[in-house]
Amino acid sequence: MALPKKKLQGLVAATLTPMTETGEINFPIISQYVDYLVNEQGVKNVFVNGSTGEGLSLSVAERRQLAEEWVTKGKDKLDHVIIHVGALSLKESQSLAQHAAEIGADGIAVIAPFFFKSMNKDGLIAFLKEVATAAPKVPFYYYHIPALTGIKIRAEELLDGIQDQIPTFQGLKFSDVDLLDFGQCVDQNSHRQFALLFGVDEQLLSGLAMGATGAIGSTYNYLGKKTNQMLEAFERQDLPLALNYQFYIQRFMNYVIKLGLGVAQTKAIMTLVSGIQMGPPRLPLQRASEEFTLGAEAKLKSLESHCFP
Ligand SMILES: CC(=O)N[C@@H]([C@@H](O)[C@H](O)[C@H](O)CO)[C@@H](O)CC(=O)C(=O)O
């Protein structure tokens, strides 16, 4: 059975894909990006080519090259580099999984195919199993994000008996607000053998209370430090302080969600906070407006002085 070299826990940044003004991947930025996450945000795990990373908007060749860049530049700095290898084509997904294994990625994750959809567990498991088999020594994570895939198969149902089918299965990325479903996944995981990674950043404290073992999300790129402080407070059972951090994060997220938060806007926020140029998103997404960026900047400044004077 494939076991992670170290248990995947804590925060995992769903990385953005830096792009040049002409829409090409800006590979030289990755090295700086790794150092920023580790040194400024205290985040040592990354999830590459996911939703935030516009993975499904990249070509297979680009996805391979980007995965390689993160593994190479993250060597001896990052604890886990998880590569999302989900695709609509099983063949593409398998070739990305095989490639992830060849370059020494720490794990692979797969989203449910969302054009021709499997309406039942058996079809989805069969697809996931075929992908996992292409990388038989690499820990496998299922990426549950029903709002984007339209696949309504509950995570608790999928998890039930999954390791009998997919021996490399190591955990779940749960990007949904259904805490009943998440709670039932935790309940099934009584021996804590799987990583159950919560994916709704603005509600992470609820996920932790239900038993999340870690979290994957876009905001850990630029709010990793604050979220780590929340995790520490929760660990010490200092709930008032943990709530204070969660409310800080929620106030900001609530503000930007109302303005229309997506990958383009996350790129703008990350550029603002880190100073690293993330560039525009790839079409059909369009870059964030200047008004959005100015608003986000002002909100961050005012929150900083009000919540942590
Ligand atoms: C729908 C979506 O993009 N969800 C994000 C969250 O991190 C999300 O951006 C955050 O909670 C703000 O709403 C992640 O769950 C997605 C993710 O980890 C990924 O990029 O693969």
From TrEMBL:
SMART domains: DHDPS
Binding site for pyruvate: T52, I216
Top-level lineage group: Eukaryota
InterPro entries named among the record's database cross-references: Aldolase_TIM, DapA-like
GO CC annotation, single: cytoplasm
Localization per record: Cytoplasm
Single annotated GO MF: N-acetylneuraminate lyase activity
Reactions the enzyme catalyzes: aceneuramate = aldehydo-N-acetyl-D-mannosamine + pyruvate
EC number: 4.1.3.3
Catalytic machinery residues: Y143, K173
Record keywords, A-Z: Carbohydrate metabolism, Cytoplasm, Lyase, Schiff base
This protein's pathway: Amino-sugar metabolism; N-acetylneuraminate degradation
Pfam families tied to this protein: DHDPS
Complex formation: Homotetramer.
Recorded family membership: Belongs to the DapA family. NanA subfamily.
Identification of the protein by name: N-acetylneuraminate lyase
Organism expressing this protein natively: Monodelphis domestica (Gray short-tailed opossum)
